[in-house]
Design goal:
about 750 residues; alpha/beta; seven-stranded mixed beta sheet; three-stranded antiparallel beta sheet; 27 helices; disordered N terminus; disordered C terminus; K+_transporter; membrane; K_trans_C
């Protein structure tokens, strides 16, 4: 039987972590100076694409048959649509409502989905435990409050497949948002560079495309510097751009048309549609390019307050003034630089969304790098960055026309915002417990606006709008296949685990010679003994004195603090020397950043042994009991190899103290664990690959045997994610074992 206890590795480590990383939930209580600093940085990341929208909104709107006439009625109508769309959607919907539904400081479609999963129990993640709900960031309501959302929960309980349908809906919206990361850089840079044709008449479009491609390559090459440095570099450019276009807007109002303020009346929207009829309705797809979803998706990089301050007091008034008059490129250099900045928002948002997808088993494991020592959510993903660059270059070279790219971009933005509206309506029901009338009002009001623009964009599917749909469908399919295959692998491990009675029947030695040292057996199970270990026991004559089953899992919260990271339990009687350690991470946490994993793990196990069976009134904390009395900051050493060397020296020092009797007050088992640590640690990791049954359909065979198998063999293994030393790694698997499941068989290979 497993008896679990939550472990706190060391309080000093927590202090170091808090000093180095300011997680999003801590940003809510930081100083005014920090908020203003983040607000300044957000200009260079969050509002880049929003600020550069005047470069292409009017051009896309008045493309085709709907050209500008001598009178200003059409301009007034389009401006009226832009003003009210910009006011109602980004300002009222996002700043005042949606951004208040952050998941412990995280934003985006997956953050809303995470809230729903916790409060309505919709999660399909494996290895969920009751102990996870005790995490401080879980924050679910009490039983009395849960009754109000019981109807929605009962619906999902009666229809389990609806949970997968909801996941597919969220994945499609997320993929559309990722598609923005492909389209926004292309349309922003291409729009700005094409302005040079005004000064150089007859310049061929191929030269415009070549210059745009060089700028795009430079943009993506800067991403490895991180959001923090890029934000400080780009923020002055955005400020200069906003001041430039707003100043020219004011000048144009007084110089050419002081009555432009009349266009703010909704009357001109109705008149525009009645005059232009179908062509006016189709042109609304270009109007929707004036807004974006990225400021909610980028929430984890900054803080809600900083983003709200920047948008309300600078971005919103500056862009309204800019749209008051059709602004031509005021300064070509500033416009080009601003367009580069405009791409940063969606690129950073894409990194955040991919990170969340990886943690929730919806995307293959990739290399995720923290780029800031101060803000936790600022990350960089090399593989995704270069894939985005290649796709962006392909769109730029393939279409060469900002109007066609604008059609694709408008459809993607409208779809993402409609998905957010639907998810937010569910959050109002399940999390905020609002009245039915308020929920329907929110869904109908904002949903009708977005559906209006979506319908206008759908007409232009053949003129470029097919790109985000094709991209999103392919990426959604890959994500769904990865999630399906991962769940089937877990089912295989769960159904074929070794029974405890079989292990206990082997005796304390497990039928092998127990040699000094600690063996860490990685498994995807939080209970039971994995089949890999049964194969190990059967075929090898010896094993380590201390055995620890390690399960690294993600929970449906953005962050898990260091004090709640390890969940330690004992497997079998004490003389067997077998433990289980469940290492919990939030979907925004990065396991690879924990360079002192071994020390923290051993400290947690020793703490568990020392406090096992004690009354709660006499428990002592690890701030009083320091097994490894050495400072362990997150980035203690420059390389993993150097960190291992220092860790070994620390362990030798501790064991020297044991020999001299300093730790004589510890239990004999604790001293035995510390001595075993000095003998060395080995990491045992198993591999298995699902295979479709022979009777499966051709689609299932292709999805599992080809797609999932390819992704599994080319993604990063858990040992790479955790920075396991290759010299200490032993990979074991069950040779040619095939177990039939409902849809799959699973075969593991050595």
């Amino acid at each position: 039987s497993d008896s679990a206890m939550n472990m706190n590795p060391t309080s000093s480590q927590d202090d170091a972590t808090q000093h180095i990383f300011a997680s999003p939930q801590n940003l809510k209580s930081v100083s005014c100076k920090t908020v203003l600093t983040l607000a300044y940085q957000s200009l260079g990341v969050v509002y880049g694409d929003l600020s550069t929208s005047p470069l292409y909104v009017y051009k896309t709107t008045f493309s085709g048959k709907n050209s500008i006439r001598e009178d200003d009625e059409e301009v007034y109508g389009v401006l009226s649509f832009i003003f009210w769309t910009f006011t109602l959607v980004p300002l009222f919907k996002y700043v005042f409502i949606v951004m208040s539904a952050d998941d412990n400081g995280e934003g985006g479609t997956f953050a809303l989905y995470s809230l729903l999963c916790r409060h309505a129990r919709l999660s399909i993640l494996p290895n969920q435990q009751a102990a996870d709900e005790k995490l401080p960031s879980y924050r679910t309501e009490g039983q009395a409050e849960r009754m109000r959302s019981s109807k929605l929960e009962s619906f999902f309980e009666k229809h389990p497949k609806s949970c997968y349908a909801l996941l597919g809906f969220v994945l499609f919206g997320t993929c559309m948002a990722i598609g923005d990361g492909v389209l926004t850089p292309a349309i922003s840079v291409l729009s700005a560079v094409s302005g040079v044709q005004v000064k150089i008449e007859g310049l061929h479009e191929n030269y415009i495309v070549i210059v745009s491609c060089f700028i795009l390559v430079g943009l993506f090459s800067l991403q490895h510097h991180g959001t923090h440095r890029v934000a400080f570099m780009f923020a002055p450019i955005v400020i200069a751009w906003l001041l430039c276009i707003s100043g020219i807007g004011i000048y144009n109002i007084f110089r050419w048309n002081s009555n432009i303020y009349r266009a703010l009346s909704p009357y001109y929207m109705i008149k525009f549609l009645s005059t232009t009829c179908v062509e006016g309705w189709i042109s609304l797809g270009g109007v929707f390019l004036c807004i974006t979803e990225s400021m909610f998706a980028d929430l984890g990089h900054f803080s809600p307050l900083s983003i709200k301050i920047t948008f309300t007091f600078l971005v919103y008034p500056a862009l309204i003034l800019a749209y008051m008059e059709a602004v031509f490129w005021p300064v070509f250099v500033v416009a080009t630089l601003a367009s580069v900045v405009g791409s940063q928002a969606v690129i950073s948002a894409t990194f955040s969304m991919i990170s969340q997808c990886c943690a929730l088993n919806c995307f293959p494991r990739v290399k995720i790098i923290h780029t800031s020592s101060k803000i936790y959510g600022q990350i960089y993903i090399p593989e995704v960055n270069w894939m985005l660059m290649c796709l962006c270059l392909s769109v730029t070279v393939g279409l060469k026309d900002t109007t066609k790219i604008g059609h694709a971009y408008g459809l993607a933005v409208a779809t993402v915002m409609f998905v957010t509206t639907c998810l937010m309506s569910m959050v109002l029901t399940v999390v905020w417990k609002k009245s039915t009338a308020m929920i329907l009002a929110f869904l109908f009001f904002f949903g009708s606006i977005e559906l209006l623009y979506m319908s206008a964009s759908f007409v232009k599917v053949l003129q470029g709008g097919w790109i985000p749909f094709a991209f999103s469908l392919i990426l959604t399919g890959l994500m769904y296949i990865w999630n399906f295959g991962t769940l089937k692998k877990h089912q295989f491990d769960l159904q074929n685990q070794v029974s405890m009675s079989r292990i206990l029947a082997l005796g304390p030695s497990l039928g092998m010679v127990r040699v000094p040292g600690i063996g860490l057996v990685y498994s995807d199970l939080v209970t039971g003994v994995p089949a890999i270990f049964g194969h190990f026991v059967t075929n090898l004559p010896a094993f380590h004195q201390i055995l620890v089953f390690v399960c690294v899992k993600y929970v449906q919260v953005p962050h898990v603090s260091e004090s709640d990271r390890f969940l330690i339990s004992r497997v079998g009687p004490e003389e067997y020397g077998i433990f289980r350690c469940v290492v919990r991470y939030g979907y925004k946490d990065l396991p690879g950043d924990n360079y002192n994993f071994e020390n923290k793990l051993i400290s947690s196990i020793v703490h568990f042994v020392e406090t096992e069976g004690d009354d709660a009134s006499v428990l002592f904390t690890l701030s009083q009991f320091k097994v490894l009395d050495v400072p362990m900051p997150v980035f203690a050493y420059s390389s993993h190899a150097e960190n291992v060397a220092h860790s070994l020296s620390d362990i030798h020092a501790v064991n020297s103290e044991i020999v001299r009797g300093k730790y004589a007050h510890l239990k004999a088992e604790s001293r035995q664990i510390l001595k075993a640590r000095e003998s060395g640690m080995a990491y045992i990791h198993g591999h298995s690959y699902p295979m479709a049954k022979k009777s499966s359909s051709i689609f299932n065979k292709f999805a599992i045997n080809v797609v999932f198998a390819f992704l599994s063999k080319n993604c990063r293994d858990i040992d790479v994610v955790l920075n396991v030393p290759h010299t200490c790694l032993l990979e074991v698997a069950i040779a040619e074992l095939e177990i039939l499941l409902d849809h799959l068989s699973c075969r593991a290979f050595t």
